[in-house]
Amino acid sequence: MQELIKLHKKSKLLGLGLISGGLDSLIASLILKLQDIEVVGLNFKSPFCICDKALKNSECGLNLYFEKLGINLFFIQKGDDYLDIISNPKYGFGKNLNPCIDCRIYILKKAKEFAERINADFIFTGEVLNQRPKSQNLKALKIIDKESTLEGSLLRPLSALLLNPTIMEKKGLIDRSKLLGIKGRSRKIQLELAKKHGLLKEYFACGGCLLTDTRFSNRMRDYLKFNKNPTMNDINILKYGRHFRFNNSKIIVGRNEFENNMLIQIKNANNLIMEAKDVSGPVTIIQEKFDENIINFAAKLTLRYSDAEKPYGQIIYGNNPKELDKMIIVKKISDEYLKSFIL
C-alpha cells in the first residue's frame, strides 16, 4: 500500500477505476490518461467472475492495463457478505440470479473505502448508458450513485456527456469536453480508439458473470436453499460437473478428466468419492449426508456416465481418492429417470 501511495504525485489527479478486464474499462482509463490523470485500477474477484480467461488473450484482458497504459492493478475478493446480496437483493435480479444493481452498489462501497486509503481524488467506471438493460439505464445509474454515497462524484468517462457533470468536471479539474457521449450496446467507438492508440488490433469479447447463466443459477439457488451458512469457498465446486439433488443430498458427477481432477481437489474432506471399477468414467462426489439409498443412486449415476457397455457394473467408493475400499454392484440408471434430479 505504501508503494501505491508513492505513485500519487500531488501535482496530478489520481483516479481509481473499477477494472473488469474488458474493452470499456480499458478505454475509460485511456481517456483519463490522455488528460494526464494518474490512474490506478481495482479489480474485484469472485467465484462468479469468468473474466480471468481474458488474461490468456493478449488482445483483451487485465494484462493490457499495465503493458499498454502503465496502470497498476489491485485486487479485492468479494466476501461472504456478498452472498447475502444474492440471497435478498434490494433491487431484484436480472434475467437469472444476477443482482446487478445491488452488485454495483456493493463494489462501489468497497471501492470508496479503498480510494480513501490511497487518497484517490475520484472513482470512475467503464459503464456505458443503456448498454445493459438492468444496471446501466439512467434510473439504475442514479440509484447506484445514491446508494453507494457517490452521488455527484462517480465519473463514467464513456457516457459522461449524456450524464450530469460530476464535481470534478464542475471544478474544471477534469476536462468534460474530452470525455465521451456513448450509449447502447455497440462498441464501435471504443474499438476505434483502442486501435488508434495501439491498445489492440482486434477485439475479442471476454468476461461475464456466472449468475447470468441459467444452469449455474439453478445450482446456486439450490446451494442457498440447503446451506444455512453459505461461504464463498463452497461456490467453486458449483462450476464443475453434472449436479443432482437426491433425498436432500447433493451429488456431483464429473464430465471429463479435467473436471474429475478439479472435483477431487476442491471437495470437502468428509465428502464421499466414487468411480467405476476397471472402466473409464467420472469421479462422483456425494456431499452432505449419505445413506444406503443415496449411495446406491450415486453409484447408478456413476455407471451411467462411465464407458461401461454392460447394464450392470462395479462401483468403488470411499473418502480417500487413493483408497476407494468399498464396492457396490448396480444397474445403470435411465436418462429419463435422472432428469427429475438434475440441477
In short:
It is built from twelve helices and eleven strands. With 343 residues, it is α/β, with parallel strands linked by helices.
Structure notes:
Helix 2 packs across helix 8 and helix 5 crosses helix 6. It contains 12 helices and 11 strands. It folds into 2 domains: 195 residues, HUPs (Rossmann fold), CATH 3.40.50; 99 residues, no CATH class. The protein has 343 residues and is α/β, with parallel strands linked by helices. Helices cover 33% and strands 16% of the residues. The longest helix has 19 residues. The strands form 2 sheets. The protein has a 6-stranded antiparallel beta sheet with strand order 6-7-9-8-10-11, with helices on both faces. A 5-stranded parallel beta sheet has the order 3-2-1-4-5, sandwiched between helices.
What key attributes describe this structure?
343 residues; 6-stranded antiparallel beta sheet; 12 helices; 2 domains; 11 strands; alpha/beta; 5-stranded parallel beta sheet; Rossmann fold
